[in-house]
Amino acid sequence: xxxxxxxxxxxxxxxxxxxxxxxxxxxxxxxxxxxxxxxxxxxxxxxxxxxxxxxxxxxxxxxxxxxxxxxxxxxxxxxxxxxxxxxxxxxxxxxxxxxxxxxxxxxxxxxxxxxxxxxxxxxxxxxxxxxxxxxxxxxxxxxxxxxxxxxxxxxxxxxxxxxxxxxxxxxxxxxxxxxxxxxxxxxxxxxxxxxxxxxxxxxxxxxxxxxxxxxxxxxxxxxxxxxxxxxxxxxxxxxxxxxxxxxxxxxxxxxxxxxxxxxxxxxxxxxxxxxxxxxxxxxxxxxxxxxxxxxxxxxxxxxxxxxxxxxxxxxxxxxxxxxxxxxxxxxxxxxxxxxxxxxxxxxxxxxxxxxxxxxxxxxxxxxxxxxxxxxxxxxxxxxxxxxxxxxxxxxxxxxxxxxxxxxxxxxxxxxxxxxxxxxxxxxxxxxxxxxxxxxxxx
Length: 442
Hints:
Distance between the termini: 14 Å
Oligomer: single chain
């Protein structure tokens, strides 16, 4: 094994340790046993319920539901899981007895609407003596769709697609989604008939904002109808928004429709929202794994902003490190402003920009890095992310690619594939944004 192959093996091992720390099934079971921070009262909440109902939604729904079904065997009256289509087979085997529905992502679809109706039908049977356990993870915003009347599913799809196309922030997208929904922005609680609600949440957003994860199905919302309207105006989408949506948002801003749930709403009195895992937990496990491999660990700033800019900044930072074997860790979710018609994802674009900068600054340095999505899906590709070294650029040129041109066209995937730097995991069943790991002087 060459030194670079060993570095890649170490990078993969560190990434895998991060994933294991945020394994949704393990975290869900630990929370139900009261073993996580903030979960001490969870066993008592479950024990006091006459009946228990479970809703799981998001990219980690299959594994979270499996853990809930196993831990609460014999206590569950009904259970609905909304999972990625790729997870249906696993979910059938791991969570027998749960009603399973696929959900669309990143755009809602007919399956998302069918799933939402199944959830609402189940909630209609709740009483104040019951417990609704909600297992929530990233992706739920699109996977469970119940448009607020008179808005239609087609309206929501069109508006969401427009917001994604102009690269609106996740907060902006969710401000609009919540105000076009009958269940988001805490509105799910209004269908629970006073039941006790416990949400176990795997966070995929910066700062673990409860109102943003899954569009805040069981959390208070600080945004308003007017905020939602302002997002569409700010991104020059208002004139292209379906007339039915414009009329609805304007009527809502005028007080003609009920707002999303706000912080002092009485409906929140019997609700507990608990974050059971996030990017910070994953990075802490990555740090322990790196230290066990003999690396001194440094933490870099959060990965927020343009992926290419972050790649260049990381290249400068790594190139300035000398001496000890070091592991540099960072986490977050970069963005890509699409200017070309290429293929790739945010992690791949960061890796390519990093490789170009490393080749420019320190072409002989012993630096190897990995940037990968924790859900195993980087953009519309089959890769989780990519490796980057100072030698990546030379390999790309040997394969007849011009790295700077590929970066300008957002065409990182074909280049990284040609030089053997793509990183594949397949869907991981968890989601806490992205992990960056770099080894210096390996």
